[in-house]
Hints:
By secondary structure, this protein is an alpha/beta fold. It folds into two domains: 5-254, Type I PLP-dependent aspartate aminotransferase-like (Major domain) (Aspartate Aminotransferase, domain 2), CATH 3.40.640.10; 258-395, Aspartate Aminotransferase, domain 1 (Alpha-Beta Complex). The chain has helices at 5-10, 36-43, 59-72, 83-92, 109-118, 134-140, 163-172, 221-227, 234-238, 244-254, 257-277, 293-299, 317-329, 359-364, 382-395, and strands spanning 76-80, 100-104, 125-129, 145-151, 176-180, 197-201, 215-219, 281-283, 309-313, 333-335, 344-348, 371-375. It has a seven-stranded mixed sheet with strand order 1-7-6-5-4-2-3, with helices on both faces. β2 (100-104), α5 and β3 form a beta-alpha-beta unit. The protein is globular and about 75 Å long. The N and C termini lie far apart (47 Å).
Amino acid sequence: MKFDPASQIQDLEQFGEFGGVNPAITDSATFTFMQAKTMLETFQGEAEGCFLYSRHWNPSNKYLADAMAAMEGTEAAWVTASGMGAITSAILQLVDTADHIVASRTCYGGTYAFLMNYLPKFKIDVTFVDITNLDEVKAAMRDNTKIVYTETMTNPMLQISDIPELAEIAHSKDAKLMVDNTFTPMMVTPAKFGADVVVYSMTKFVNGKNDCVSGAICGSVEYISSLIDVNNGTAMLLGPVLDPLRSSNILKNLHTLHIRMKQHSSNAMYLAKNLKKIGLDVLYPGMEEHPDHATMKKLMNPEFGFGGMIAIDVKTAENAAAVMEMMEADGVGYLAVSLGYFKTLFSNSGKSTSSEVPEEEQKSMGMSEGLIRFSVGLDNDIERTYQKIKKCLVELKLI
């Protein structure tokens, strides 16, 4: 039977303390114990169902973590105060001084900066590769490689990682495959294809409101327990705890994610096809000419579509700035970073979310200075949106 992430969330029964259809929000930083023995067992990770301190666990965060684990098909999950909090904690838990990581060259700029600039302080080496070139990935592996890190759909080039093949490569060297699934929730379930750890910026599609920052780490019970161990757990000791009120809000939003992803995908496909017809260079994995279209079809849960992210190339940063400013003025959406919002968001990747990546590296990965990344919104009349974009392109003589 196929895995249905939406149904997995729907089947969770999480009642409030007094029978409320929404779980009660935990407004406590610390928790009482009736016996000193139980507190000691909780400190040692031996007590089931007990809460110690909100930096470790609280009921609100546990409800959301359980829902994320259900959606991802993993044994457990933990939630954080930002996507970077999830990414950095998840990575640091698996590596030590003198270890090695193989990572996708195209990834979120903050992740790239952490891998490229921060980890060397601990003498952790990172080799960046074209993650779609499996021979290059294999060649980069070493005996001390601990993690192969990638994004299901890479940011901003929208490459698709072949997760089953990457899992096989990683596991052949006793390394873990870690996958950032931020762009593709419900669309792809990385753990079902061999990913050991799945990370999220829940700020984006999962929450869908752009009203908070948050992250999630999904994996085995053993791994999540190690993350929050009071003695050496990275997440416990670095403390990227998510506020319970935000957890409660995100949990409610999660129950509409399947509807939102279908609309994001439908609208993005419409724009991609029509922008292609008028002569633009368009990147979208849903189009047959995309080099990773077949890989995406192999991985995807088809009812959720190919996602809400598209990119167009208008050749120069000056062109990108002009068209984005005009689109914002004409009501297409907002010139803003981030994604997964109900309105369309667009930005020039090389000057914004990928600006941490050196220009020479941007060129080597094939990123044009005129690349505009769109997070396509939930517009009810996407033809109207398309006509506004087309008008801007015509007025600026870009088509």
